[in-house]
Specification:
201 residues; 4 strands
Length: 201
């Protein structure tokens, strides 16, 4: 729908659905970015009793910046801390001119998350983090990862697990090339991922 933008407060749309259908004892499954959104909703609505995060997703900003060199990541976070809007915009715009994927990602992201610049987009993405709400998740959680995910480095999982100190149980399953499920959201062998979810339930 035109004019509709994403919100990091995923508990709000989820509450509308659960209220409308008068649901309780619900399993929520979040795919890709849903790996953040589903735990976020569960943190605020205990009618959700089981959470499937079909992707490790500790922080959207961390996922986006994660593919860059350690030096560049360090510089980026330093500039963000300084609120160096003009410098950040300049860097992102220069990279977008050279790389079509970055150009598309930046333009699409600014629209989808209602931001007026690269800096504004980064500020919005910083809100999509499990860290501030992870201690509120008390349900059972299953996190699915992929060993060759082009978008999300599964090595982030250790940090993410530490963000859930109060869950009833936490299960992590990493899918691999041998299983033909090593790609983002296990594209290539979704049946194995779905079977894993069903067995876990």
């Amino acid at each position: 729908m035109q004019g509709m933008h994403f919100t990091h407060e995923w508990e709000k749309p989820v509450k509308v659905i659960l209220d409308f259908f008068n649901l309780s004892d619900v399993t929520i499954i979040g795919v890709s970015l849903g790996g953040y959104l589903a735990p976020r909703a569960a943190a605020f609505d205990k009618r959700i009793t089981r959470v499937v995060a079909w992707s490790a997703f500790p922080s959207f900003l961390e996922v986006i910046i994660g593919g860059q060199s350690p030096a560049l990541r360090k510089m980026f976070y330093f500039l963000m801390k300084l609120h160096a809007k003009d410098i950040i915009n300049l860097i992102f715009n220069m990279k977008a001119k050279k790389e079509p994927m970055i150009d598309w990602g930046l333009k699409h992201g600014m629209y989808a998350y209602e931001a007026d610049s690269a800096y504004g987009y980064a500020r919005k993405l910083a809100k999509y983090s499990i860290e501030p709400i992870g201690n509120k998740v008390t349900q059972d959680i299953l996190i699915l990862g992929a060993s060759k995910d082009h978008f999300i480095d599964y090595h982030m999982i250790g940090r993410e697990i530490a963000m859930f100190p109060n869950v009833r149980s936490l299960t992590f399953r990493l899918f691999t090339e041998k299983e033909e499920a090593e790609n983002h959201c296990n594209v290539g062998n979704e049946k194995l991922a779905l079977d894993t979810i069903c067995n876990w339930l």
